[in-house]
């Protein structure tokens, strides 16, 4: 476990918690979707991605962004519509473009787009891949299957990372998905790797080889990562009973890493808490972002 | 180039030239590969000449337009053929929410070089889900342009404009035009001539700067029908009309139309769309300050498009509908 990874995990955790606090205080506009409990997946993936890869994120994308760009101020400014915002405050929480990272807010829409970026890479920059983070709920969209079919047919370097948190907004997966993600991937002849771990190093170790195969022309891969959504869908909308969420908390990466590294976690935790608090204070004081259509 | 050219051949040549000129350009669509060459044969020969970049696809309009958007995002250019424009409804999301929005929603200009070609319209007996003119549903989308194929415009020029804009475009192509002839050398037929003022084609009998009874404004697909109506109006009714045909339907550039509109007693906007929320309504609003009189709309009936030929004729705009519309506007 690198301190850098721990710092990234805790940065995302504190950033998301700060957003919920800001909402509670009425200081944020609109909506946001936090990735509390899911931070370890993008942090693990970061170790397998290259800056020349395309990365497609979704509505629950702050962790994806912060794992790749150490830029909480730019992201918070984007969410708050302040100067220095990554996308001038136009995109907001779920529409971010920076270099080869793009998030957008319509479920499933990104997969055909990612397939297109993968086609480009396969011709122009072989060895690079397009990675798309999606949720389990996204698998209700037809675009997902059109993209998987195209990606498999054309052997595109497309890495689909499913953060399977068992709940789509308020609807449990059991009420939204017939069959399984593994079965759906198999239907297209696409390899599927299931991971259920909060250990960043373990995730990387398991995924290194299948991801390398995507780069080597092996065609698409579906990674299904079991995760625990510890927060609400957006702000205060969590219909799950408290004991259910408490059980999820017990399996979170934070107690796991506390057991593993002890005081080191406390030290990094305090550093990131202070860092995020300073970012919140500094960004909140900035002038409003300027933009003209 | 010598000799007459059918519009399908002209469009095919324009696509071929565009692919030859730019090795980052892709052409995607269902059944577009040889030997079939597309449902309307617009892409015939192209997959043979450019096998790596002319890709026949599964039946997945949402997927292939999204994929084309991904190519464009990554710096390539893409043209997608939607076999029948009716099916572009299945690609509404990648067009409106991805391709068009991405050009500005990230707070800065992001070029998206994407053209979605849509064989469109009726008069072929294909029935309610294969005959519509859906242009109107794509008007007023920020970052999205709507063009239409015309027998008066050079498709290579129009294609280059659309692909060069950096914002996505839809190219509606009236299926009834494909087998017809491209107008060249300023000649429409033995009565009418035409010229081009930028993107705007003007059809006239004697002089485009004459005072006339009526100016018709129509997209390219209506040119043969409008010209037939204008001939009848001229020879049988002694009503003199000019026809204005912009290649880009939206956003509409009114300035080049203004002189002609100011010299006409009436303006009639013609299109094949069914009634309600039409392009004509948009045009009428846009030209309200330059037109001398009221603007009249001529379009198809408020109806699905029936299959049986006599029923289809009863719904769609025809030369007779246009002639009647002009006479009523002037009466």
From TrEMBL, chain A:
- Could you list this entry's UniProt keywords, alphabetically sorted: Oxidoreductase, Thiamine pyrophosphate
Q: What cofactor is needed?
A: thiamine diphosphate
Question: What sequence ranges are listed for the domain Dehydrogenase E1 component?
Answer: 10-251
Q: Which residues form a coiled coil?
A: none
Matching InterPro entries = DH_E1, PDH_E1_Alpha_Subunit, THDP-binding
Instruction: Supply the PANTHER family for this chain.
Output: PYRUVATE DEHYDROGENASE ALPHA SUBUNIT, PYRUVATE DEHYDROGENASE E1 COMPONENT, ALPHA SUBUNIT BACTERIAL AND ORGANELLAR
Q: What is this protein called?
A: Thiamine pyrophosphate-dependent dehydrogenase E1 component subunit alpha
Origin organism of this chain?
Answer: Luedemannella helvata
Automatic annotation (TrEMBL), chain B:
Q: Name one Pfam family in it.
A: Transketolase_C
Residues crossing the lipid bilayer are none
Q: Which domain of life is it from?
A: Bacteria
Q: Where is the Transketolase-like pyrimidine-binding domain?
A: 5-180
Listed A to Z, the keywords are:
Oxidoreductase, Pyruvate, Thiamine pyrophosphate
Which cofactor does this sequence's record say it needs? Answer: thiamine diphosphate
Q: Does the keyword Oxidoreductase apply?
A: yes
Give the catalytic activity. N(6)-[(R)-lipoyl]-L-lysyl-[protein] + pyruvate + H(+) = N(6)-[(R)-S(8)-acetyldihydrolipoyl]-L-lysyl-[protein] + CO2
- Its EC number(s): 1.2.4.1
Extract the PANTHER family matched here: DEHYDROGENASE RELATED, PYRUVATE DEHYDROGENASE E1 COMPONENT SUBUNIT BETA, MITOCHONDRIAL
What job does the chain carry out?
Answer: The pyruvate dehydrogenase complex catalyzes the overall conversion of pyruvate to acetyl-CoA and CO2.
From the Swiss-Prot or TrEMBL record, give the protein name: Pyruvate dehydrogenase E1 component subunit beta
Protein species of origin: Luedemannella helvata
Organism classification: Bacteria, Bacillati, Actinomycetota, Actinomycetes, Micromonosporales
């Amino acid at each position: 476990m690198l301190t850098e990874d721990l710092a990234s995990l805790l940065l995302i955790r504190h950033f998301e918690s700060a957003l919920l606090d800001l909402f509670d205080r009425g200081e944020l506009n609109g909506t946001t979707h936090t990735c509390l409990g899911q931070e370890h997946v993008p942090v693990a993936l970061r170790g397998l991605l290259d800056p020349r890869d395309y990365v497609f994120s979704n509505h629950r994308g702050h962790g994806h962004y912060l794992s790749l760009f150490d830029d909480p101020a730019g992201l918070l400014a984007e969410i708050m519509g302040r100067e220095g915002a990554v996308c001038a405050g136009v995109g907001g929480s779920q529409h971010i473009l920076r270099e080869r990272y793009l998030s957008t807010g319509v479920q499933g829409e990104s997969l055909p787009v990612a397939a297109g970026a993968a086609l480009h890479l396969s011709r122009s920059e072989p060895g690079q891949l397009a990675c798309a983070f999606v949720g389990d709920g996204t698998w209700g969209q037809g675009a997902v299957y059109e993209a998987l079919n195209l990606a498999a047919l054309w052997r595109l370097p497309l890495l689909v990372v499913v953060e399977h948190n068992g709940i789509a907004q308020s609807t449990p997966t059991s009420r939204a998905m017939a069959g399984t993600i593994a079965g759906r991937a198999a239907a297209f002849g696409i390899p599927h790797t299931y991971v259920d771990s909060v250990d960043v190093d373990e995730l990387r170790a398991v995924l290194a080889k299948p991801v390398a195969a995507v780069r080597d022309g092996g065609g698409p891969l579906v990674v299904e990562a079991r995760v625990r959504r510890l927060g609400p869908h957006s702000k205060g909308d969590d219909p799950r009973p408290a004991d259910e969420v408490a059980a999820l908390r017990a399996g979170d990466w934070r107690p796991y890493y506390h057991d593993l590294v002890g005081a080191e976690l406390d030290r990094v935790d305090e550093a990131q808490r202070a860092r995020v608090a300073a970012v919140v204070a500094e960004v909140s004081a900035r002038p409003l972002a300027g933009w003209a259509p | 180039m010598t000799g007459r050219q059918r519009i399908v051949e002209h469009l095919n040549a324009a696509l071929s030239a565009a692919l030859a000129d730019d090795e980052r350009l892709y052409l995607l669509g269902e059944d577009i590969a040889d030997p079939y060459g597309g449902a309307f044969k617009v892409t015939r020969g192209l997959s043979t000449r450019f096998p790596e970049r002319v890709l026949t696809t599964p039946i997945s309009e949402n997927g292939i337009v999204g994929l084309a958007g991904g190519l464009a995002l990554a710096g390539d250019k893409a043209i997608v053929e939607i076999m029948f424009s009716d099916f572009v409804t299945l690609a509404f999301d990648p067009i409106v929410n991805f391709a068009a929005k991405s050009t500005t929603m990230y707070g800065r200009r992001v070029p998206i070089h994407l053209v979605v070609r849509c064989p469109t319209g009726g008069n072929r007996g294909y029935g309610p889900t294969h005959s519509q003119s859906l242009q109107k549903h794509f008007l007023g989308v920020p970052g999205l342009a709507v063009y239409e194929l015309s027998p008066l415009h050079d498709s290579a020029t129009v294609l280059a404009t659309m692909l060069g804009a950096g914002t996505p475009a839809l190219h509606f192509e009236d299926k009834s035009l494909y087998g017809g002839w491209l107008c060249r050398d300023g000649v429409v037929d033995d009565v009418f001539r035409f010229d081009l003022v930028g993107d705007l084609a003007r059809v006239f009998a004697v002089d485009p700067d004459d005072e006339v009874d009526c100016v018709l404004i129509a997209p390219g697909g209506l040119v043969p029908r409008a010209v037939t109506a204008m001939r009848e109006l001229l020879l049988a009714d002694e009503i003199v009309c000019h026809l204005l045909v912009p290649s880009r339907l939206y956003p509409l550039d009114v300035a080049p139309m203004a002189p002609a509109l100011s010299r006409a007693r009436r303006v009639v906007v013609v299109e094949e769309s069914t009634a309600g929320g039409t392009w004509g309504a948009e045009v009428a609003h846009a030209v309200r300050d330059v037109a001398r009189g009221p603007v009249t709309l001529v379009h198809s009936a408020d109806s699905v498009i029936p299959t049986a030929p006599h029923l289809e004729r009863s719904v769609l705009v025809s030369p007779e509908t246009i002639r009647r519309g002009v006479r009523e506007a002037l009466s």
